[in-house]
Design brief:
Helices cover 80% and strands 0% of the residues. The termini are far apart.
Length: 136
């Protein structure tokens, strides 16, 4: 199965901490793609999936702290999106242990994460820019 690559330029929000987290997530997704194509399986891939899930949770926690501090109006919707992504990823990682199928995980990551960034995170970035402009 061919996966659409996520280009880093497509996910830049303009905020260093968030962009650095996005870059780490993108790098991990690319490692998963490489692991699939080189048929590197078992412990190494399971560890990578666990690291990816932990990085995703850590990134969401950073975003949520930032949003709460700035009193982002769409915080509840954004938080709900984070919960759905984490729950889905956790399920997919657990299913991987039984199936060994990375395609579903890679497809989910490339579509859901890039979609989340393009929609939710860029809305938050716009909110921050507007708020900063008003403060000047």
């Amino acid at each position: 199965m061919q996966h659409v690559a996520i280009k880093y330029d497509d996910i830049v929000t303009g905020f260093a901490r968030i962009d650095a987290d996005h870059k780490r997530l993108l790098d991990m997704i690319n490692l998963l793609c490489k692991a699939r194509s080189e048929t590197l399986r078992s412990v190494l891939t399971t560890q990578l999936l666990t690291s990816l899930l932990n990085q995703l949770a850590s990134h969401f926690e950073h975003e949520e702290e930032f949003m709460a501090r700035l009193e982002f109006g769409n915080f509840d919707r954004h938080l709900s999106s984070h919960c759905k992504i984490i729950n889905s990823m956790t399920l997919l990682v657990n299913q991987y242990d039984a199936s060994g199928d990375l395609d579903h995980i890679i497809n989910f990551m490339t579509t859901e994460i890039s979609g989340h960034i393009a929609d939710e995170d860029k809305q938050f970035a716009s909110f921050i820019r507007q708020r900063r402009a008003k403060q000047k």
